[in-house]
Amino acid sequence: YYIDTATELVVSTHTRTVKCTPSVANPSFYLKATNAPPVDNKYMQAYPDPGWGYPTLKSPFFIDAKAEASVFYLDSQSRLLSNGINGTVYGWSDSYNDFQLFYFMERRVIQLSLETRLYAYCTLNPPSGLYAGNYQEMTCETRGFWNTRVFQWCPLYVEVYAGLGLVLGAEASPETPDCLNITMLVVPACGG
After folding, report:
1. Which of 110, 112, 128, 177 could be stapled to 156 by a disulfide with Cβ–Cβ 3.0 to 4.6 Å?
2. Cα angle, residue 63 at apex, residues 170 and 165 outer, rounded to 5°
3. Which of 87, 90, 150 is nearest to 119 (CA)?
4. d(CA 42, CA 60)
5. Digit-coded pLDDT (tens) for 124-182
6. Please, are residues 192 and 124 in contact by the beta-carbon 8 Å criterion?
7. Is 74 helix (H, G, I), strand (E, B) or coil?
8. Which candidate, 10, 99, 85, 78, places its Cα nearest to that of 45?
């Protein structure tokens, strides 16, 4: 008898300690999606996605457990990033058109092609009062030709792109494809 064993994807689990420093001007936080029923009240996780051919690429998946979600923060230039077991990754989107999937990747890889890989520059806005928890709300934009700035969840993309449905677009897309605007709530990593 012959047994063939192959490992296609290993997802490491780990314990992380988040140091609570309330006096820090730019604290760590979780991102919680709203408004889109498939991901409503779920937390974002920058998940390893080797299927795209880049070992450092991570895709935004939405999960129920805050304890398993990624911890994010903004750097001194307001770029969205997360520290993971495989290094620090930055939020980014392609520059090819005004409606692009949103990803995370290491800075050194993004820097190789700044014309096509655009950092996500984000702002933490005061709570609008529309959502429970009185959390700040995060908006992001890319600074390319299209100036994408509207987070959306697109169910069609989930089917086509293996579960990826988070888009950063230049404007809302209520049809073609049907998408739902998402507000990203900023849940503090400490005390949230």
Report:
1. 177
2. 30
3. 90
4. 11
5. 999 999 999 999 999 998 877 777 778 888 887 777 776 678 878 777 666 656 788 89
6. no
7. strand
8. 85
